Amino acid sequence: MLHNFCFEQNKTPGKPRLEILVGKNCLSGRNTSRMTAVEPTVVTQRRTKASANGEGPSDETRGQWGRAWEVDWFSLTSVVLLLCFAPFIVFYFIMACDQYQCSVTEPLLDLYAGKATLQSIWNRAPSFTWAAAKIYAIWVSFQVVLYMCVPDVTHKFLPGYMGGVQDGARTPAGLINKYQINGLQSWLITHTLWFANAYHFHWFSPTIIFDNWIPLLWCTNILGYAVSTFAFVKAYLFPTNVEDCKFTGNFFYNYMMGIEFNPRIGKWFDFKLFFNGRPGIVAWTLINLSYAAKQQELYGEVTNSMVLVNVLQGIYVLDFFWNEAWYLKTIDICHDHFGWYLGWGDCVWLPFLYTLQGLYLVYHPVQLSTINAVGVLLLGLVGYYVFRMTNHQKDLFRRTNGNCTIWGRKPAYIECTYSSADGQAHHSKLMISGFWGVARHLNYTGDLMGSLAYCMACGAGHLLPYFYIVYMTILLVHRCVRDEHRCQNKYGKDWKRYTDAVPYRLLPGIF
């Protein structure tokens, strides 16, 4: 599933997420993230001596990782506005489809002409229902059970898949948490039951998600705000690790950006991993399947555009869960604290706005010509290839400590050092070979190609399906700047050497 008053993914696949720029920092809610690498670096586990003077880390050193310690007026204003209006932004897009056939301009024109009022639009929207609350409670509870009570076994018979218990990245305080990686298994179990119900058991209609879509919006908002509030209170009363908490003294900023770095209940329930990956991203493909079922019910067929959206976004979701262990090294886990932007963003922003293409196609079925369908498919697949291979090269480089082959030759890299908050010095390598030598964030470029393919599958009849590519472009361009600001603080002059070697961010020769 917002960063810099622009809404974000770590399209996270991914998390999935919501990102909003606030001052020097962003909010990221999902997905995560999209699954986007923090930097082209391999971090060794080697630790050297503490700071020379024997003292603890300074505020300046601690502030290099995670969110800001101080809040300026622009950041505070952005935070307050987002807390107040972000839920209504989501409601506006969903309401536009429900009442105005997915037109994003007609509601505004009706308000301007006096044909509608905010009250009349609100009154026409479906309200909270206990049926939707029951559906959502069962859904979240089921995902909790799969996450906590069903240890991963898929890694034992799927070659190349890394599941089970895995180490996360080093936290700013110098800790390394362990995670239970079983997202792929949870996705497989969930979708097996979904298809078994659709074709055999018939416990519920495959259109159940679409039929309760706006009531479910209220339920997801309740959970999003509830988990964000709980994490906020927990940070003050019983934090998981005091050394990895950040307090600014500003209530609104702490609530939105989060205080705890890795809030947990017990040994294994990690708030970040659960809410970034489950229940939002597991639901992503189910939501699209429900849209396809509704299209079949209404029109007697599923269009090739709906198939393309399901296939291309399904590839993205499966990629996320296949590489869930790698996700532990991304910006969501490595740098973001858990607050409203992750808690609410993963519960609401990701499932409702990342699925706008499928929702649009229910109201406006599009049958693409063969050549257009093939073009959209190729764009999506090439984008995925660039996205995945760029991240694969980084992961291979990290796992082998540079002792590997990239594009037929040993990779080149720049040696650099950094310090964690406990004063320990660490060593990293910034790769300048392969895709990482072409541009500093070519994985984002592939991500944008895939995002454009989702939108183009919907034709050119309305603006609403293209919200996604506009949002992702703003998000990832800003994320480039955000990542590099953090890396500049972390690596100093070594980062300058890297940017001299790889001068372009997204498009070689252009940007």
UniProtKB/TrEMBL annotation:
GO BP terms: brassinosteroid biosynthetic process; cholesterol biosynthetic process
Residue ranges of the TM segments: 73-95, 338-356, 368-387, 451-477
One GO CC annotation: endoplasmic reticulum membrane
Subcellular location: Endoplasmic reticulum membrane
Alphabetized GO MF terms: 7-dehydrocholesterol reductase activity
Database matches in InterPro entries: ERG24_DHCR-like, Sterol_reductase_CS
Keyword annotations: Cholesterol biosynthesis, Cholesterol metabolism, Endoplasmic reticulum, Lipid biosynthesis, Lipid metabolism, Membrane, NADP, Oxidoreductase, Steroid biosynthesis, Steroid metabolism, Sterol biosynthesis, Sterol metabolism, Transmembrane, Transmembrane helix
Chief location: endoplasmic reticulum
EC numbers for this chain: 1.3.1.21
Name the record gives this protein: 7-dehydrocholesterol reductase
